[in-house]
Structures are given as structure tokens and as C-alpha cells.
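To fix ideas, we quote verbatim a fold written out as C-alpha cells:
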Amino acid sequence: MNLKKKLVGLGAIALLTAGLAACGNDAEGDSSSSSESVGEKLDYKITGIDPGAGIMQATEKAIDEYGLEDWTVTSGSSAAMTAALKKAYDAEEPIIVTGWTPHWKFAEYDLKYLEDPKGVYGGEEEIHTIGRLGLKEDMPEAHQILSNFNWSEDDMGAVMIEIKDGEKPEVAAQNWIDANPEKVAEWTDGVEKVDGDKIKLAYVAWDSEIASTNVMKLVLEDIGYDVTMSQVEAGPMWTAVADGSADASLAAWLPLTHATYAKEFDGKFEDLGISMTGVKIGLVVPTYMEIDSIEDLAK
């Protein structure tokens, strides 16, 4: 009986000690988290993509407009950005990335755009197809297809998700084409076949543009074109279309993201039309982060 009481007493002491230790650890954790600002937690770094991208220029402007002198945006690739996002998200750690819609990450993770009260990132944008001057005369069939090209965010998302899950881009593109023959027929309606004419498409390595360019490559090849895809950064992409070293690109984000390039090369390219509306750029964070606006980064 005395042994039983002794064991119960020891158990109670152990539980009390563990409880106090847990409380002490929680208090320490709360103190640490409450004492650090978002900037301190992130070492004042925003995770960006390739340095020539329009969203990077907009982010540099946002840093200036919102008085975020301590902040920097790190450059890299789209793949590196999403890898950093996954690592932070899986550990429920804070992260801020340059983001855009459409992109598969919004289906994969619970994310939100930070509010932009100063309008640095603009409102809704459009993805345009642009072509070199003289394309209509030299390649009327390709010009017609590229001008007709338009699809939805869901269409693009289906291709992006397959690629993200490990499928080869050309296979994912063919799968979408096979599942959507009526949409492809709208782009190619009335177009005659060609015999191996060479055409070069320039694009940036955004998941969205990888999807659209691979789909268009297959559509043009089915008409008889010999298609080359050239992956470059945004500046060289616009330069290539303007100087004729590339025939077209499906990756022009307007009116804001690529505004600098559109102005620089005004009169040196043809806007073939809008392929998608309602797209967006901005700073993106996981929803578990307790910030809602770019203004919060100055605190």
C-alpha cells in the first residue's frame, strides 16, 4: 500500500514537472515569436525569380514605394522559387515570394497575395502573343493560328499540374490537345498545311509559358511547321522578337509586367492578340502568416 502511494506521488511530481517545463517552453517560444518582426524572421529577403522578369522590376519599385529600405529581393529561377516555397511551407515557416496567377502553386498550397494599396503591381493583367514584323506576310498560316490562340486558366492549369507532377512538358501538352480538340480546331480553322517551314518561338521559363509554348509547338507542328523553342529571360525574349531572331512569343504580360519592354520596342513588334485575361502578379505568402499587406513589411 505504501509502495503504491509512493509511486502515485512520484507520478504526480513527474507530471507536474513536465507540465511546468512545457509551459516554460511555450512561453519562451511565444516570447521569441512575438519579439521578432516578419523582416527579422526572413532576414529581410523576398524570394524572387530571374532578374530580367517584369515582376522583379515591380518588386524593386514596391520596396522603394513602401519604404522597405532594409528589404532585398533575391533573384533565381522559377523552379528555385517554388522549391524554396515548398520547403518553407512544409515546415510552416515564413516566406515571401514573387508570385503570379495562373500558377500551379495556388492549387498545391494555401496562399494569398499581400494587399498592394499603392497599386505598384497594377490590377488584372493579360497575356499577349507577340510576333515579329513581317510574320503575316512570311508565315500567314502561323500568324493566323497565333492570332487565334486563347485559352482559360483551367486549360493552362491542367498542363502545368501534369508537368509539376513529373510529366514531360511535350507529353502534358499533347494530353491537353487530345482532350480539347474543339479548342485547337478554333485556332486552326481554315488554315492550310505547310511543308516544313521553320518557325522559332521564344519564351521565358515561367510554368505558365512553358505550358502554352509547348502546346503551341505541337499545334504548329501538326500544320507542318518545323518548330524551335528558345528559352530566354524576358529582356532577350522581347529583343529577339523585335530584331526578328525569333518569330513569336506567347509570353508577353501586359500592360504592367512587361511595360518597359513594350515601350522600348514600340513599333518593332506586332501584338497578335490576348491569349488570357485576368492574370495577376504580386507578393505571395502562405495563409498561415499573419500579415495581409505589403505595408506590414515596414513594421
In short: The CA atoms of residues 89 and 208 lie 21 Å apart. The radius of gyration is 25 Å. The beta strands are 45-47, 72-74, 97-101, 111-113, 125-132, 198-203, 226-231, 248-254, 269-286.
